[in-house]
Structures are given as structure tokens and as C-alpha cells.
What does this fold into?
Amino acid sequence: MLGRLKMSTEEALQEYDRFAHKIFSTSNRKIALSDRFKASTLQEAIEDLVARRGKGQLMSEPKEIASDCKTFVCAMPTRDLADPRRFRSYEVEGDRFKSCKIWEAARATSAAPTFFKAITIQDEAGIAEDFVDAAMGYNNPVEWLISEAGSAFNRSRKLGCVVSIGTGTKPKSMERSLSGAKNIARVLKLMKDITTDCERSHRAMEKLLQDFPGTYFRFNVPSAAEEVGLDEWKKLGSLKEMTSEYLEKAEQAEKVAEIGDMLATKAGKGLNVGHICYPSKAQVVASLRRAQPRGLSSPFFTGRGRVLQQMRQYFGSRNDHQTRAREFLVYGMGGSGKTQVALKFTEEMEEEDRFDLVFWIDATNEVTIKQSYKSVASTVFPDDPGDGKSMPRVLDWLSETVEDWLMVFDNCGAEPLTSSLPSRRKGNILYTSRYDLRARFTSDAVANINEMELDDAILLLLKTSSGWDSPEILGGHEAAKSVAVALGRLPLALDQAGAYMREKQCSFEDYFRLYWKQKDTILQNPLVKGAVAENLAVYATFDISFEALEERFKEQRHSQDGLAARGALQILSMICYYHNHNVLRETVGRAARTRHKTDRGIHYPLGNGDFSLEHLVEMEEGVWNPTNFDLGRDLLASYSLIKMDTHGEYISMHILLHSWARSKMEQLSKSTTGGSARALLFDSIPFSRAQKDFIYRRKLAPHVDACEEYVKLKNPDDLLESEYDGRLAVLKKEAGMFDAAEAHLESAIAKRREVYGADTVPIISAIEGLADVYEAQGRYADAADKLYEAIERRGGLPKDDQRNLTKLIRDKEDLAGVLILLDQREAATQLLEEVVTAREKMYGPNSMDSWGLIASRESLQRTRSRQSDRYLDKEDLEASIEILGHAERLCGSDSTAAMSARRSVALALAQAGRYREAEKLYMEIYEHFKELRGESDPYSYAIVHCLAGVLQDQGRHLEAETLFRSYFVFKYQTLGKRHFDTLGALIGLAMSFTHQGRFMESELLMQKVHDYLEAQFGSTHVLVEEAKSFLNQAARAHGMCQELLRRKCTEAALAASRAALGDLMPPDIDMIMAIMPQTFSGELPEWDFLTPRDIQRIQESIPDPVLFCSQLQEPLTEELEMEILEKWLKSKAEQLKLNDPETT
It folds into this structure.
């Protein structure tokens, strides 16, 4: 109404009142649950309004009345609820719904499930789709708004503000008075995300624009959505009153006035479209599950029609006999455009919706392959931890998913990629390579591309040099033909030549002469000895552009063009020492902030003279000024020396240009630029453990690896190098490269000792980092040794240093945690007593305003109870409740301190046998951490583990298994199979198996757990003894009549769940089928706990699921027990080939 029909807000509200009365009236109701109101009435009302307004029938505005106000609405296709469609009032290239009518768009975005039936709309190709209201997943479409802005506007376009208007919040609380049924429902949906919270998108926007105050405004009337339903048209008056009261409040009135001033004066806050579109675009792409970043094909892409057609045919629709993966190879010389062909093909396939998913793997080397898989994992699994297990996780998922996917392995080497490839049982794989790998493929699955056809080469040159793209004029351009032939018809060289001519307004004749002169010079260069002719053409065109940049800088040194040329040369001298793909703009900004805080530019400048990188990291009033970088980046792109993503956040360089640029730097006696590039890169690595810093370090890994390979020069200052060792240790520890992290920290310690010669804070910090690396590997004894050393050394520092005292207390607390894992509980208790005493001295004995003090008291209480081998009693419960009261009063009910105290109360309740109360409390804590940190945060999963234990205590083993399994997989993926937490999680899973009568599985798992624990901790560790005891129980149960025991255990587990869940209990047959022989078919990770023989034994020990389940449907009688027993004995006798009745 507002955007397309040009109605005022008053007119729109009047029309809505009229609509609501007619559409939601009793006379328009249907006798149905799926769609309660007649959609035809809504359609008639909209069509009538469109006719009265006289603004045309199509959603897309006619050109004669088109305005600056671009409007779109979202609707969700019923077949793909993850990918909303957009109906626009403006033109966008590739828009599938240009002919959509206004009433169709309005119906689609109003088709709320249970209110109106879906609407069918055809796209431009005649393909019909059914649509429902986008509130099914995008009730707050602000991220799609940002995505649209990024497509419709230039990223430098000034942006005043973003205004988001909600439909009212539904209050969320963690009240303890929820009914049992409600709480059970929350447990059942615990691991399934089925909600769409508008405020989540709001918080994401707040975070995105936190550096630009006064540019994001959100209006949302509290409780409106709860008090007034969509069909409650008679309450519209109440809704208007609530809205008026909300807007009259001072805070909202001030925001409205601020927005009005901004619109009237067009005054901005320094924000432009580019500031917000890239992050939002990344989130949008993640929701589409497409691996990023992936480049775009060149807008000047020309020719290669035969190869593209061959690929279309090969990857066309499958016939019934094609069940294996389809693999295709594109190979040819460097610079021939293999990557561009692959990009063009994937873009065409996406436009045609040929594949459900498209992934891109940079196959340059092992590091880039792993990094690409991490990018894929972060999109397929949004909460992926980004550790060393990302690749196997993705490979497992690809082998199991029913979706038809395409994976591109770009720039493959000569060696096979066997360990990096998905299963050959399904999917589609496209390879590009400079190497002739034809022997591995069938003849119809290979395309060799080298130089272009002459006409295509001339056309590409015309496009890139002047924008001409008409084939009819080819014959009249003999000069262009001469250049194309001289450049060997190689796309990369043609692209660079055309860009140079466009920038310099150079004729084909002049460029032809310039090229031969430059080529003669290059031939005299010893670096090109033995180079193939095609590479020489690329080197010559690069040198021509490089010299043009140098000339521009020298001649226009003080103008903006000169500054752009300087920035371009500096960027080239930097990125040639990183990986050639996806260099991050963010790296320069992060390095600038680090160097500003440490005054590093004064003591350790990034080079001297024109190639100094200091110009790229300039700060203004404490904020990085990206002007020099952005000007240089855009100029390099205009010369086709680099490619960048839509928003300029990632830049890439062809590998031939990349290697030649590095040679050029060294040849020009600018080898020190390698050291500057290294320093800038390492300065950007953060120490912080915040999620955004973790994600950044993950992206940086290929560049660190490349830089360490290309640059051997280190800073002569050992202290600076030791700092870089510390930063690199953080990055490599997170990547699972523990040996490298350990080596960096040991190097840091050695360097710092050489400089300081005594115990200092930097030395102790590195020792603490080493302890952290050891603990991450499960090397608890080594971790304890380092923490003891750190504590001893900190004890020798000045006693009045408050910061050192805080660190000392934290080290003791960390050591206590490690000692508990080593079963040294008495020593752990003593340390925690010291911690509590120190914190009481620091904050006062009765103080409850310190989270550290609350946490240490809580830890001490738990450790004492474990040390005395007793359960928490009534006094412990009362003490925990008292601590909780203090924490909530002083720190807030949602504080970390309160949640930790609440967890202690839940533990005490469970040990007192008050399981349902404990379960309810754990659910409150889980929902808090899930909202605050996300489902896959370690805090959230720790509560999942606690909740599983409480369900187990109630005999609800079927439900407990689901949570134990989820917790185990998380720990396995993040910490590895031998880590203490992983093995502890496995014990819970094995216990769940036993209580369900799955004795063979439980015994095998517990045997492996026992062996690993014993090897790590020794035979006397309490966990080893517990594992041994449990193993003996499982073995005895397995040795008995397991069919009968299994039957009874399963009945007991079902009964417990049925009693707790009531009507919410799934059918018994579904519950049983979920835990039968399919258990190890892919739900758990691949590991070496179970050998193929182990799995065979498990499957042999389990009866036929259909037979067994059919028996379970009958009541358990003595006769049925005997029948099951006789069948089991008979099968075992046959299996063991026993023929003698007495022996049987």
C-alpha cells in the first residue's frame, strides 16, 4: 500500500480497517483447520483497491510513474522454506517474477498458514510455485532489506539510517511456574530449532551498526502480538491505543524526531551502503547454505560456448541407471580462463535451479582445501566450531544428504585428492587444473581449454577496452586482431590489456608497440628463463600495467589519482606474500587498530619510502581510515590485476600474476616488503576469544600459511617476534595444530627469557598459554606442571600488583580443575579454599557482588561433596538456594553468576531425588544460554549433558540417549575422541544403551573407554575404576539371556517416558525403531572405537527389528517370554552349530 500504491499511512490504515472487517468476519469463515478464512474475499478486496488507485496492475512499476521509492515484499515457497522469494516494484536483472501482479504479491505475503490457503504464482519461465506468508521464517526481513540495498545501490552510496517497524513482541520469561506439560514440550523440542524470533534479527542489526550510533531505529510495541491476534479485527482499536501510548513515551518520541530531522536535512552519520551490506549479505548467503566467499564470473565473459554446452549435457538430468557421482575435468594452461568457465557454469546452473547446493573448494593446497571445507561447514552447519573436523563432517553429510549438490575443486594439482573428495556414490564434482589429468576420466568428461577462438579473443578485447560488444564490427578492427594474436589469444592477458587501454585511453596500435617493447625487456630477465610463451604474454601485460601505476604515482603524487596509484602498488607488494585468493580488507583494519594501540608504527614501521605499508594503516581520531586501501583496491580492479567480491571485502589475484608480482618485488630490491606484509598480517591476529575474532582467525589461516612459506625474514626484535609467536599459537591451537601452537609458545618463552632473564609477566603468560594447549589435548599432567610453574613464578612478583594477584587466583582455579580431572581432589580442594580466601580478602568475606567469588565458592562446594564421596544433602541444597538468591539480587537473574548458582541448585535437587524440579531448572538455564550464546556453545551443551543425566535418573533412557548422543558428538567434534570430556560423554551414552538392554553396544563402547582412560590416567583413577565396574556389569548382562533382558529394559524405559510425557509420547513403534541396528549407520562420527568386526557383532546380537517390534505390540505374558527365549536359544544354537540337545 505505502510503497507500490503510493498511499499515505492514514489511507492505508483506513483501507486495512475496511479489509479486516470484511475478511475476518464470521461470514467469511470456513469449516477447516488448515485455512480458516476464504482467500477469495481477500483477493477481491485487493483487486478492488488496486483498480481504485489506478497505479497499474503489475507489482513492477511502469517506467512512466516509477519513483525513487523501491519496494519489495517477501513470501515463502512451500517447497523450500529456507529461501524466500522477493516481489519487487523495481527492475532487477534475473528477476523471476517481473510479471507478478500487485494482488498476487499481496496475497502471497498475506497467506499466513491456518488463516489462508497458499497461492500459486508463475515465474517468467512459466514455472509455478505455491507461496505462504514469509513469517514462516522471515517475520523480520531486515537482513533481506540490506541484501536488496547491496544489489540495487553502489556500496559508496550515502545511507542515513535503517528503520525497522515490528508487529509487537511476545514476551519471553523463565518463570518457574510453567506447567509440567509445557516443560515436557520444551524438553522434546530441545534440539530442534522451530522458532523464528523477530527480535533475533533486530539484535543482529544492532550489533552490526553498533559503531554508527544513531543510524538504526527499531519500533516494536511490547506485547501487541500476544494480545491481538491476526484475525482479531475487533481489537484494532486496542492495538492503536497501545501503539499511541508506546510512541508517546519520551524514548520513542526522541527517536521519531531524530529520524525526521535526518530525512529533512539529509544529514548522515558517515554510514554508507557498503558498511552494512557485506555482513548482511554473508548472513543471507549462509541461510542459503552456499559456501562463501566464491568469486563472480567476469562481466566481460566471452566465448567458451562449446565447453559450457558439453558440461550442461554431462551434468544434465540423471537417468535411472546413474547412481554414482559424476565427475568432469576442465584443464588447460595458466591464464586460459578455467576458473572463469567454472564460475560461469555454476552461475548458469543456479539460475536454472539445476542443483540444490553449489560448493566451491580452493584446491591449491592442503591448507586451502581445509579452509574451504570450513567455509562449507559454517554454511551447512551454522554453528560449526571450525575445528580440524570440519572436512570429515562435511564429507559425511554429503554422503548422506538427499539433495543434489555440485562441488567445484578449483586449481587442482597433479596429485590425487582422494582424502579430500566426497563419496563417489552420489553428487557432482567439477575439477579445474593446469595439469593434464585425462587418464582419470572418461572421454566425455574432459574439456581442454587453452587459447580462445580468434573472433572471441577480439570481442573480449573490444569489451574490456571500450565496452563494444557487437560481433558485426569485428572485421573492421585489424589493430585489435593484431593485439589479440600477439597476446596468444589468452583470456588473462587480453583482460589486462583491455583494462590498460581503457584506463589510459590507449589505442590498439600504441598498445601493440608497447607490448613488443615490454616483451623484449622481459626476455632478458633471468627470472623468465624456461617460461612458456603464454606465461610471457601474461608477465608482459602485467608489467605494462605495473609501470603505468608507477608513472601515475610519480606524475600525480599529491592528487587523489596519485594516492590511488600509491595504494595500488602498496597492496600489490602486500598481497603477493599472502594466499592469492580471498585476502581480507578486514586484515588491514585490524592491523591498523593494533598498531595504533601499541605505537608500533614509531618503533617498527612497515617499510620505508613509497612502498611503505604505513599509508594503508593510517588512523584518524582512533578509527582506521580505509581511503588509501579502497582507492588502491579499486584502481587495481580497474586494471584487472585483481578481482574482488561485490562489496570489496575480499580480493583475489590470478596465481600467475601473484607469483610474478612477488618476483617483481624481489627483483626491484624491495624484498623488505615481505617483512612488512608479514608484520601487518600478524598484527591483525587477535588474542580475544570472542566469536567474531575466532571466525576471523579461521579465515586467516591460509594467508598465515602462505606468508610463512614466502617470507623467511623475521623482525630482529625478539620481543616483537615473541608476541607474534603468541598470536600464532592462538590461531594454530584453534585449528587443531597443537604441535605448531606448542612450538610457538616454547619459542616465545625462550625469546622472552633471553631478553628479560628473569620471571616476568610476558614469560608467565606464555607458560599459561602452554598449559591451555596441553589441556586442550587432554595432556592434564603436563598442563598441571605448567600451571604449578606459573603459580610459583607469579608468587615471586610484587604482592601489591592487583592484576598479577587476579591472574594468580585464576591460575589456582584452573589448576584445581585440572587436578580434579587427575583425581587429585584433596589438592584441588585445598587450592579452591585458597582461592575463596583470597577473593574474600579482595572483596570482603560477606560480599556477594563478585562473580569470581560466587563461582569459586560454588566450585569448592561441589569439590568437597565429590571428595567425601557423598551426595549433596538438604543443607547443601539450602546453601545453594541462598547463593542463588544473593546472585540474583546483586548481579541480576539473567547474569552468568545467577545461572551458575542455579545450576548448583539443580544438581542439589537431582541428588535429593527431586528430578522433575531439577529438569525444569536445567531447561531454564539451557534456554538462557541458547538465547545468549547459541545452541552450539559449550555452555549450552554442558546443560544438555546435565539434563540428560536427570532424564536418565528418572529412567527415561530413550530421551536421555538423544541428549547424550548430541553432547557426545559435539565433544567429539570439538575436542577429539581421546579427550576427557569426550570419554565422559561416551560413558553416559553407554549407560543409556545398557538401560535399554543394548548390552553388546554398551560393552564394546565401555571397553574402549576403559582402555583409553587407563592409558591416560592409570588404573587407580576413579573414572577408570568406575568404567571397569560398569564394563563388568555390561559384560554380565550381555552374557545372560539378552533377548529377555532387552525386552524388559525396553519396556521399563518406555514406561518411564510414557509416564512423564503422557499424550506427548511418540508411538512406541517409532521410539523402538529409532534405536535398532541403524544406530551406527552414520549418526555417530566415524572413529576407530568400533572395528568392522565390532559392528558385525552388534548387528548379529540384535534380532530382526520388524519381528521384534511386532512382538512388542502384544502384552508381555509368561508364554510370550518363553517364546522369545526359545527363538533366541534356537538362533544361537544354529549360529554355534550345536546339534546335541543336552549341550543346547
